[in-house]
């Protein structure tokens, strides 16, 4: 069980600010996902944690051990950190067993037993241990990479876009498998990803970087429902943003009178997610009417583009509805909002 503390970490490449005053705590045995647009500093932070880059200032503590401090950087091989990269980075000339056991002392009498235990932990067929990496699928290679990283019994696991090269269905399966393995092992984990759905489903804590700064961190659901600003809202998924009059815990806008997460006063903007908007009956007083412009069927759900009849100045809204509720282009329907909406700063 090892807590990670990042305190006031900064990194510059000449005049370019890669990271600026990053403060983040990752609880023992928990999973934190770091997300942000390209160039936000995600990879730089990961490399500093791994020991591949030195910070200009700040501290990094892993449990009671200092990894980074002013004038000091613990060598990468002494940090007790495991890394799984996007491509797995397996040794092509070694067998799967030799890849898994690469970090285990060859004179260790339990070496072979440990390799077999690790293979079983990541649900890898024992028959595959004699194969070479090119004889395995992408998902199997990632399982090998995870087993190899676990072999050194790391205190911290760094996952650098480990699922991005996999097909969609396999990506979800691997994400769940890796999450289960790390949870069972009780290893503190950081995931860096561009996939917001992956980050939201994998992590206990979500951290959003932008232009080298940490703009918001907290439980994934909190950030999804109550982002600190419009850019963060869009980064984490589709969002509907409307001008509103805020008063007494309510927002009056083109979609009617909506309940706020927190009380605000005056003119402002509210944010809600498309899945909060549903088809309502004409008798619901809080509903508004909209004309269907386009419908796109996508299996279990569909994308519906509507124009609000209440305000021609508002751009068309894009909704996600169950296939059972999909209207036809040209239909006029009543809309209502489920749950609370968030007032943006």
Automatic annotation (TrEMBL):
SUPFAM superfamilies from the UniProt entry: MOP-like, P-loop containing nucleoside triphosphate hydrolases
A Pfam match: ABC_tran
Domain ABC transporter: 4-236
Keyword annotations from UniProtKB, A to Z: ATP-binding, Cell membrane, Ion transport, Iron, Iron transport, Membrane, Nucleotide-binding, Transport
Signal peptide range: none
MF-aspect GO terms: ATP binding
Claim: Transcription is one of the keywords in the record: no
Organism superkingdom: Bacteria
Family, similarity comment: Belongs to the ABC transporter superfamily.
Protein name in the entry: Iron(III) transport system ATP-binding protein
Organism expressing this protein natively: Rhizobium paknamense
Lineage: Bacteria, Pseudomonadati, Pseudomonadota, Alphaproteobacteria, Hyphomicrobiales
